[in-house]
C-alpha cells in the first residue's frame, strides 16, 4: 500500500509527497521513492526518520503493521500532525491508543478507505436493524495470501455495524471459530469466515439469512489504488482539523 500511496500522491496536483518512512531494517531505506514504483527518481529517498517526516508534513498516513502504530502515534501527538491510520489487525490497547492520541491531534481511523465499503457499513446497520433477531448474520471476507490479519479490519467494522443495528454489544456476539462439532449455532451471534487466496484485492459479503430467503450485501475492490486514493482523500480532509477522532464518514459526508 505504501507504493500505491506514493503513486496516488505523485499523481495528485493538490498534494506533495514530502517524506516516505519505513522501519530501520527495511531494504527500501535510502532508495528514491520513484524507484519503488518503477518510475524515474523524484529526488526523495525513503527514511526511518519519522519525526522529520512529521515536521515536514501537513498530514501523516499510516499503512504499515500494528506494531508500528505506537511510535507513529507518539510522533503525531508530539508534533501535532494529523494522522490517517489505515493499518488493520489492531488489538484493544492499540484501539485505545488511537483514542488517546486523538486528545492531542486529529486522528482518522479507517479499516477501509473505499467509498463502497463505508456505504456498505451504513446499509448493514440499516438491514440489521430492520430484520432484528429474525436474521442470522454471517460475514465472509476474501483477500490475497500476503495479508497478515484475519478477520480483516473491514469485516470487523461491518460486524460492529451489524451489532449496532440490533443493539448488541459486538464483543458479546462475535464468533470467530466454526470448527466445533457438538454445538448448535448460537442465536444472535455474528460469525466470521475468511478466505486467503492468490491476488484477491478485497471482498466482503454480509449474509442476513431468514427462513426461506436471504439478503447478501457484497463489496469487491478490483484495484488497490482505490484504497490509496481513499486514504489521500482522507488526508486532504484531515489537514487542519482540530484534535479529535474521525472516520471516513466525516470525509464522505455519511452519517458520522
Ligand atoms: N484501510 C485500508 O483501506 C487498507 C488497509 N490495509 C492495511 O494496511 C496495512 C498494510 O498493508 P500492506 O501494504 O498490504 O502490507 P505489507 O505487509 O505489504 O506492507 C507493510 C509495510 O509496512 C512497512 N513497515 C513495517 N514496519 C514499519 C514501521 N515501523 N514503520 C513504517 N513502515 C513499516 C513495511 O516496510 P518494508 O516493505 O520497507 O519492509 C511494509 O512495506 C495492513 O494492516 C492492511 O490490512 C491495506 C489495504 C487497504
Ligand atoms: O490487507 C488488505 O489488503 C486489506 N486490508 C483492509 C482490511 O483488513 O479490511 C482493507 C482491505 O480489505 C484490504
UniProtKB/TrEMBL annotation:
<feature type="active site" description="Proton donor">
    <location>
        <position position="147"/>
    </location>
</feature>
<feature type="active site" description="Proton donor/acceptor">
    <location>
        <position position="143"/>
    </location>
</feature>
<dbReference type="Pfam" id="PF05173">
    <property type="entry name" value="DapB_C"/>
</dbReference>
<keyword id="KW-0028">Amino-acid biosynthesis</keyword>
<keyword id="KW-0560">Oxidoreductase</keyword>
<feature type="domain" description="Dihydrodipicolinate reductase C-terminal">
    <location>
        <begin position="116"/>
        <end position="252"/>
    </location>
</feature>
<keyword id="KW-0520">NAD</keyword>
<dbReference type="GO" id="GO:0005829">
    <property type="term" value="C:cytosol"/>
</dbReference>
<feature type="binding site">
    <location>
        <begin position="153"/>
        <end position="154"/>
    </location>
    <ligand>
        <name>(S)-2,3,4,5-tetrahydrodipicolinate</name>
    </ligand>
</feature>
<dbReference type="InterPro" id="IPR000846">
    <property type="entry name" value="DapB_N"/>
</dbReference>
<keyword id="KW-0521">NADP</keyword>
<dbReference type="GO" id="GO:0016726">
    <property type="term" value="F:oxidoreductase activity, acting on CH or CH2 groups, NAD or NADP as acceptor"/>
</dbReference>
<dbReference type="GO" id="GO:0051287">
    <property type="term" value="F:NAD binding"/>
</dbReference>
<dbReference type="GO" id="GO:0050661">
    <property type="term" value="F:NADP binding"/>
</dbReference>
<protein>
    <recommendedName>
        <fullName>4-hydroxy-tetrahydrodipicolinate reductase</fullName>
        <ecNumber>1.17.1.8</ecNumber>
    </recommendedName>
</protein>
<keyword id="KW-0457">Lysine biosynthesis</keyword>
<keyword id="KW-0220">Diaminopimelate biosynthesis</keyword>
<feature type="domain" description="Dihydrodipicolinate reductase N-terminal">
    <location>
        <begin position="1"/>
        <end position="112"/>
    </location>
</feature>
<comment type="pathway">
    <text>Amino-acid biosynthesis; L-lysine biosynthesis via DAP pathway; (S)-tetrahydrodipicolinate from L-aspartate: step 4/4.</text>
</comment>
<dbReference type="GO" id="GO:0009089">
    <property type="term" value="P:lysine biosynthetic process via diaminopimelate"/>
</dbReference>
<comment type="subunit">
    <text>Homotetramer.</text>
</comment>
<dbReference type="InterPro" id="IPR022664">
    <property type="entry name" value="DapB_N_CS"/>
</dbReference>
<comment type="function">
    <text>Catalyzes the conversion of 4-hydroxy-tetrahydrodipicolinate (HTPA) to tetrahydrodipicolinate.</text>
</comment>
<dbReference type="InterPro" id="IPR023940">
    <property type="entry name" value="DHDPR_bac"/>
</dbReference>
<dbReference type="Pfam" id="PF01113">
    <property type="entry name" value="DapB_N"/>
</dbReference>
<keyword id="KW-0963">Cytoplasm</keyword>
<dbReference type="InterPro" id="IPR022663">
    <property type="entry name" value="DapB_C"/>
</dbReference>
<dbReference type="GO" id="GO:0008839">
    <property type="term" value="F:4-hydroxy-tetrahydrodipicolinate reductase"/>
</dbReference>
<feature type="binding site">
    <location>
        <position position="144"/>
    </location>
    <ligand>
        <name>(S)-2,3,4,5-tetrahydrodipicolinate</name>
    </ligand>
</feature>
<feature type="binding site">
    <location>
        <begin position="86"/>
        <end position="88"/>
    </location>
    <ligand>
        <name>NAD(+)</name>
    </ligand>
</feature>
<comment type="similarity">
    <text>Belongs to the DapB family.</text>
</comment>
<dbReference type="InterPro" id="IPR036291">
    <property type="entry name" value="NAD(P)-bd_dom_sf"/>
</dbReference>
<feature type="binding site">
    <location>
        <begin position="110"/>
        <end position="113"/>
    </location>
    <ligand>
        <name>NAD(+)</name>
    </ligand>
</feature>
<feature type="binding site">
    <location>
        <position position="41"/>
    </location>
    <ligand>
        <name>NAD(+)</name>
    </ligand>
</feature>
<dbReference type="GO" id="GO:0019877">
    <property type="term" value="P:diaminopimelate biosynthetic process"/>
</dbReference>
